[in-house]
Design a protein that fits this description.
2 copies of one chain form a homodimer.
Chain A lengths: L1 H12 L10 H17 L3 E5 L6 E5 L8 E7 L19 E3 L2 E3 L7 H16 L7 E7 L9 H7 L8 E4 L11 E6 L1 E10 L5 E2 H4 L6 H10 L22 H8 L6 H8 L12 H6 L3 E10 L8 E2 L2 E10 L5 H14 L6 E10 L2 E2 L5 H14 L4 E5 L4 H10 L2 E5 L14 E3 H19 L2
Parallel strand pairs in A: 3-6, 3-7, 7-17, 8-16
Antiparallel strand pairs in A: 1-2, 2-6, 4-5, 5-18, 8-15, 8-17, 9-13, 9-14, 10-12, 11-13
Chain lengths: 444, 444
């Protein structure tokens, strides 16, 4: 085990930040190291160049008649700022309170490395899984995976598989094995409202022209009704209703009570669509969120100005069977219809990704749950994810395979934030889980 | 005249920026220069220290039985940024297209200097006005005149006067003498809505908590009804109705047509309270304006975040007989009543100032209009101002005297902006106007 941790630490030390091109050499060095490690472990690995960062693809010797498992992960990490909030150097792995603290420890190097470590053990012990394996690790997940889906589409046959395993989500609480069988999709846009050609003195013009800040407030507040329901016409038309068994399952799990979500959000109270629990609002209901707004004077004190323009950044979280392009069309139509007089509206569409849903009671789903239960000693909780991993639905559509999402990080693993960490225990039990998963899937 | 311009240029070269303490020496040097110039011109001037920048107070020899005229102006100027938009150095007076271009040329050094120059001429020629004169020039107008009202209150007897003259407003068009007989007041506040304790991932929490950006939009859009009328309860209760003669006078003046205001605002269309012309909305109707808003992620691209808090800066422009403190009370009550569930509201009150109104048909008002007409060769247009000069109503309350506002700058004088300028003609005719005003007032 110490040897696995040592190698993980080597892997973690690479500053493989994909969002900042000044780290390009580190990204490449990290990919090369991973490729070498996989080859040394007894797999046949290659570095595949893309228009962006390289993919690492490793396989064992494939044999007819075996199931094929694709393991997906990513070796790129988020930027580390604000640096001053880190209590240890962000790229120097440090064990504190039995947690591995380092950028990438949870998202995703630490999690993907459980599969690598499990395979290394098994190959060394001559117990190679009775599966055809494809390990697929990308270096652009944190910037939206621009190169992966096109590469998969163009090279489908290379990635033919029966099922996919991903550990890039989380447990709902410590010691609580969790399987995500769904994800929300996402669609983003930015809107700008422009009134007067330049900023105006609010004394000399106030009352005679439409204030773009007021106009922005009107258009943003038109997105929801008073009960928090999205007011865009047709927004809910394609929404798949929650299944009775899901409703019951979540209602029965005390760790999914509304109070738990409120405490985790550190919010004065919960708010959202009437008639749904917090878990339901998060996993089976779509949202419209404003993520940023800017207008006029934002410095100290007051400046009596009417700003020339105001902007807002919006994102929609989508559930099956909503289509991001269709939702963006409806949103644009709504914004146009609700644009107040006296300002002009400009909309830029940003990134989007589809929602995902699998049947957790499928044969593969049950195998995954058995692996979680055996490794962690209790029945896994079945959840959907509120966030988005667009590549999961892309892989479903391109490769025709479902993804078993077996998250190992915890609610306080601080992914994307300072002091990111992963409990040593989750790493150790994660390797055990991977080994059991191989066994379970080979006999599914 | 060349000599007056030369002296004005000396005055303009002082970088007397009151908002930035690094210019403190320049402010003091400017005050000292002005004091010396007034003494050299034959007046008895002194520098009066205040907790802030010095006041300059100059008098002629007062005699029993004469009217007393107080002339108010300010020698401090606005900052000059953005510097790169200046086509000439901001503190090097340059005549371009028959306009004096320099920071302070219009606001207010160039305008106040017409009175100084007129007096210098008259004293030199032995034609000193038959008036007791008090020249009062402050150095903190651009930062809200914090020292002046307290000083006047504590030294009332020193400033006893019958009427006040101020040239710190503007003409509605070139060659169009204009008298402002009213000003709007102002009251500012900043509000902050706080939801979750820290920023949250909008995928992992979106739909379960109130979004502070949405909440801000709701509360801001609650400030107006659909027709642009302020929706705060009691907001209009104390508003003095427009007089029929004002309505008629403004409707009859082609330079005050709605189209002129729209063209000046460079806005796609005008917008405001139904049933009022642009001039009326600007001068006899109060407003609620949002001057700034900030929330969440405002950088490039998208970041799927729910910000912890959102803020807005509001200002209200007030008309007689609205009281700023009372309006702020009503506004706070409204904001509290309209604060959405799920966020907490914090309000900081900022600066305020009272509206002002005088009777332009009073004896002094008529004298002022005769001076404008004689100097500029056409009947002056009577307007009210949409902006605020709180010291005007303060002087009314402390000294009991009305202010004759005889503005000399033009709509494109670019006050507070790069390339500030004043037509040479307005400076020359302004000196003439001051001389006639002295004569008119002495016989009023």
């Amino acid at each position: 085990m110490d040897s696995h941790l040592d190698h993980l630490f080597e892997f973690l030390r690479f500053q493989s930040i994909s969002a900042d091109s000044t780290y390009q050499n580190n990204v490449n060095a990290c990919a090369d190291w991973l490729n070498g490690y996989l080859n040394d472990s007894g797999l046949s690995s290659e570095v595949i160049q893309t228009p962006g960062n390289p993919l690492i693809v490793a396989k064992n010797k494939h044999q007819e008649g075996r199931k094929t498992l694709l393991i997906y992960g990513h070796y790129d990490v988020q930027p580390v700022d604000p640096l001053d909030l880190w209590e240890t150097p962000p790229f120097e792995p440090t064990i504190i309170d039995n947690k591995i603290r380092c950028r990438g420890s949870a998202d995703n190097k630490g999690q993907m490395f459980v599969y690598v470590s499990a395979l290394k053990d098994l190959i060394k012990e001559g117990k190679e899984p009775d599966l055809n394996l494809i390990l697929l690790f990308e270096g652009e997940e944190e910037i939206g995976s621009p190169s992966l889906a096109p590469y998969l589409t163009a090279n489908k046959e290379k990635f033919n598989c029966d099922v996919i395993a991903i550990s890039d989500t989380g447990m709902i609480a410590p010691q609580t094995p969790t399987m995500d069988y769904g994800l929300r999709g996402v669609a983003c846009l930015e809107l700008t409202l422009t009134g007067p050609k330049t900023d105006l003195h609010s004394g000399l013009y106030g009352g005679t022209v439409k204030n773009p800040g007021s106009a922005l407030s009107e258009i943003i507040s038109s997105l929801h009704d008073k009960d928090g329901k999205v007011a865009i016409e047709g927004f809910y038309t394609d929404v798949l209703a929650i299944e009775p068994w899901e409703k019951e399952m979540w209602a029965d799990e005390p760790k999914l009570a509304d109070a738990e979500f409120q405490s985790s959000a550190q919010a004065p109270e919960l708010f959202g669509e009437k008639g749904f629990s917090a878990a339901e609002r998060l996993w089976v209901r779509p949202t419209a969120e404003v993520n940023g707004m800017g207008y006029g004077y934002q410095g100290e004190g007051s400046k009596t100005v009417i700003g020339s323009s105001a902007f807002a950044k919006l994102s929609f979280r989508l559930v099956p069977n909503q289509d991001p392009d269709h939702i963006l069309e409806l949103a644009v139509k709504h914004l146009q219809a609700h644009c107040p007089a006296g300002v002009s509206l400009n909309i830029e569409l940003e990134h989007s990704g589809k929602p995902y849903l699998m049947d957790p009671h499928s044969a593969f789903g049950q195998s995954a749950q058995r692996a979680l239960e055996k490794a962690f000693g209790s029945k896994p909780v079945l959840v959907r994810g509120g966030g988005s991993i667009p590549i999961v639905q892309d892989m479903k559509e391109i490769l025709g395979a479902d993804s078993l999402m077996l998250g190992l990080c915890l609610p306080d693993s601080k992914i994307h934030a300072p002091n990111e960490n992963l409990p040593v225990e989750n790493f150790v039990k994660g390797i055990e889980m991977a080994k059991i998963l191989f066994e379970e899937l080979s006999s599914t």
